[in-house]
Amino acid sequence: MKVKIQLNQLIEAVQDVMKAVSSRTTIPILTGIKMEVTYDGVHLTGSDSDISIERLIPVEEGDLVHIEVKQEGSVVLPARYFSEIVKKLPNDSVEIEVGERFETTLRSGASEFSLLGLDPEEYPRLPQIEENLVFEIQSDLLKAMIRQTVFAVSTSETRPILTGVNWTLTDGVLNCIATDSHRLAERKMPIDSQSEELSFQNVVIPGKSLNELSKILDENAEKVQIVVTNNQILFKAKNILLFSRLLDGNYPDTSKLIPSESKTTFVLKTKEFLQAIDRASLLAREGRNNVVKLATLDNQTIELSSNSPEIGKVFEHMIAEEIEGEELKISFNAKYVMEALKVMDCTEISILFTGAMRPFLIQPVSDDSIRQLILPVRTY
Amino acid sequence: MKVKIQLNQLIEAVQDVMKAVSSRTTIPILTGIKMEVTYDGVHLTGSDSDISIERLIPVEEGDLVHIEVKQEGSVVLPARYFSEIVKKLPNDSVEIEVGERFETTLRSGASEFSLLGLDPEEYPRLPQIEENLVFEIQSDLLKAMIRQTVFAVSTSETRPILTGVNWTLTDGVLNCIATDSHRLAERKMPIDSQSEELSFQNVVIPGKSLNELSKILDENAEKVQIVVTNNQILFKAKNILLFSRLLDGNYPDTSKLIPSESKTTFVLKTKEFLQAIDRASLLAREGRNNVVKLATLDNQTIELSSNSPEIGKVFEHMIAEEIEGEELKISFNAKYVMEALKVMDCTEISILFTGAMRPFLIQPVSDDSIRQLILPVRTY
C-alpha cells in the first residue's frame, strides 16, 4: 500500500471514524483504524463493535485531487496516535506506505513517522445488511430529530432498552420516542418514500449511536439513506456509512402515557420561561432535588418559586400569553423542563396540565410534531 | 444596606473576587463574598486566607453611573450562589437590600431572590500592610513576567518553597525565578523606581497567587503598585487589591546553576522547533517519559527522534539558522522544552549546551532577559 493524501481531507476523515473508536475496548484490534486504499480512494473504518463508521476519501471531488494512489493495499493503524499525528504534520499532504510486517511510514515535509501496523485481515468485517427496508431523511432534519429526542434517554443500565430511542414508521410518518420514565420526548416527521406501505416498529437505536451520528452529519439538506434490519441500522450519508446495532427487547408501550385532554393550558414565550426556570432553580441544584414550584396567580401571571432552607428562596413572576382553565399549583424537576424547552425550536409553547399529580405536556403552539411529557414531583 | 448596581459592573467584580474564594475552605465564612456599601461605591472581598481580593465598583466612572447608594452597610453572601445569580438576572441592574438577620433581597425585573447572609463583623480583616517597600510595574509587563516564570514552579508539596516564584530586587532590576528542580525559568526586568536603593530578596510568592493575579489584571500599560512586607505582598491595580501571603523558608541559591560558557550553540526558529518537538514527542506521551533525542547532523541540520517499542518511531529534521561548536547528542523531556519555548515571545532563540549531561539554556538571540534552563535526561 502506498498513497499520498491531502492532509485536510485525511484529518477530517480520521476525526469522523474516531467517533466509533473506544479506548476501552476488549478487542485489541479495535483500538486501531483500518485504512484501505483502492483506486476509488481511501476507506477508513473505526468501530467499537456497537457502532462502526466507514469514511471514504474519494480520489477527486470536482477539480480537487485529494489522493494519489501509488499501490493498493490496507493496514490497521493505532487510532489515537494516528489521529494525533495527522493533526500535527507540517506539510499539506502526507505519504503513507506500508512495508514489511505492516510497519507503516508516514512522510510529510521533514517529518517521518514509522508506526507498527496490524494485519487488516484480523479486523472485523462490517455487518452485511440486506437493503429491504430503506428510506431517506434530509441530513439537517435528521440531526434535529436526534437532538429533540436523544437527551431524554435513560442513562441508567437498570432498563437497558430505555437507553435507546424507539423509532417506528407507520403510514408514512416516522415517530421517535425517548423516555427515562421521568420524562418523555416524542418527535414525528412525515417521510417521503416511494413505497407507502413501508413500516416498522420497535427499532430501538442506542442513544450513543445517535449522538455520534449527529456529530458527523452535516447541517445541510442532502439526503441520508437509512436501512433498517432486525438487529442493525445503517445510515448512509455522503462518503460516510454508520452502522449501529439495535437494542434487544421490547420498548414499553408509551402511547397511553400522553394525556388527551387538559384542565389548564398556558401559552408562554419559550425563552422567557426557560430563563425564569433557570433562575428559579439556581438555589435548588447540586445534591438538592432541582424542584421548582409553579402556581397560577391572578392577571395571567404565573409564579415560579423555590426554597432551600440553608441558602434562601426565589420568586419569579411571568405574564403568560394565555392562561385557560383551572387554577394550578404544581412542582417539577427544573432540569427536565429546561432540557425539553431547549430543543423546542419555536418562540411560543403551549403547556397542557391535567392536574398537579398528572404528567404535563409541552408542545409548539400550533402543531404537535414535538411533544415533551414531564412527570411532576409531589410537594404541593 | 440598600443599593442599586449596574449588573455588568457587578458581574465583572464578582468574577474577580471569586478567584480568591475556595469551596474547600475550613473557615465557613470564607465561602462567602463580603459586600460593603459606602458612598464611595461597593467593595467586594473574597479570600481563602492565602489570597484575598478586594474589588471596588466606584459610584461613577466618567459619565457612567454604576451605583445608586440608598443606605450604607455590609453583609456576607454565599459566594457560589451569589455569583451564579448575578450572571442570570433579567434586568440591567439589581437592587440589593439587607434586612433582619442579614437576610438579603436581590430584585431585578420580575425576579426576586432572598439569600441568607452572614454577619460581616465575622469576616476576617484584610492584612494591615506597611507601605515601606513600594514599586510599580506596567500591568501587561507584570502579566508577561508571571506567564514566563510561573509554569516552572513545582506542583509537589515535598519542597513547599519551590511551589512559589522567587522575586529579588537589586540595583533597580527585578528578577523572578521558578524551578521544580528539573528546569528553571528566569525573567529579569528593570524597574523605574524613585528610590534607587530599594531592594529585597527571598520574596517567594505562591504560584497560585500569581496565576490568579494574572487573570484579573488587564492587558494594558497602566501601572500596578506592588507593596512587599515580611510575610505578605500586595498588588494594587485600578479598583483591585490582591493580597497574597509569602512562602516561609529560604529559596535555594540558583545563581550557580546557570552555566556561564557553552560548547555547542544553536540558533533556531522558535515556532518551527516547538512544532518539531511536539511531533517528535507524540509517541512518547502518557505514562511514557516524554523523552526526545536531539543530535547534530551535517549541513547545519539537527535531528529530533524518539522510539516507543510498541508503537513506532519518529524522526524530525530541521535546518538550524546557525550551529556553532562541538557535535552533540542529548536527550530531554519534551514537555519542559515545549513549555519553555511557548513563553519565549521571540521568533528566534539561542540554545547553549555544555555537554550531554549538563543543563542547557534557552534564551532570546539578542538578550538574556529571559533564560530557561533545562536538565537533560540520561539516554545517549
Tell me what the structure shows.
- 2 copies of one chain form a homodimer.
- The first copy, chain A, has 380 residues and is α+β, with helices and mostly antiparallel strands.
- Chain A folds into 3 domains: 2-122, DNA Polymerase III, subunit A, domain 2 (DNA Polymerase III, Chain A, domain 2), CATH 3.10.150; 133-245, DNA Polymerase III, subunit A, domain 2 (DNA Polymerase III, Chain A, domain 2); 264-374, Box (Proliferating Cell Nuclear Antigen).
- Chain A is built from 6 helices and 28 strands.
- In chain A, the strands form 5 sheets. A 9-stranded antiparallel β-sheet of chain A has the order 16-13-14-15-28-27-26-20-24. An 8-stranded antiparallel β-sheet of chain A has the order 8-2-3-4-19-18-17-12.
- The radius of gyration of chain A is 25 Å and the shape is elongated.
- The mean pLDDT of chain A is 95.
- Chains A and B meet through α2, β11, α5 and β23 of A and α2, β11, α5 and β23 of B.
In short:
Chain A has 380 residues and is an alpha+beta fold. Chain A has six helices and 28 strands. Chain A folds into three domains: 2-122, DNA Polymerase III, subunit A, domain 2 (DNA Polymerase III, Chain A, domain 2, Roll); 133-245, DNA Polymerase III, Chain A, domain 2; 264-374, Proliferating Cell Nuclear Antigen (Box), CATH 3.70.10.
